[in-house]
Amino acid sequence: MGQFEKAPLYHQLGVIKWRQEEHKEAIIYYEKSICIEEKITPLQRTNLADSYTDIGVVYYVMDEYSKTLSIQQQSLPLNRPDLSSIYANIGLTCEQMKNYSQALFFFEKSFEIAQKSLPENHPDRIKNKL
Question: What is the pTM (predicted TM-score) of this model?
Fold first, then answer.
């Protein structure tokens, strides 16, 4: 197995460790996946944004909100279909940090992207209308 095939495996090991609530180990596996993914061409990448997002979630669960915000902002490729959800997650992190104006900015950005990119009957778009 080549080095590049290991990236998705490291990502999945991170998911497993997160579900086992072994947060520090999960971060280590996500970071290994990111290291490999960043070395390959964008078209071959499978988990780069997911690994960044998942590390952000782990830090969020660990109440390390500033790390969550930093990691999640690194995971914002413009062509990602769930960009609206990523912005909403950043908004939640800002809200936890009691930075309400920044949270509002990211929630509005999430809503705007959802309105433009999701079909009328998509559950996330419906949720954003409430």
Answer: 0.61
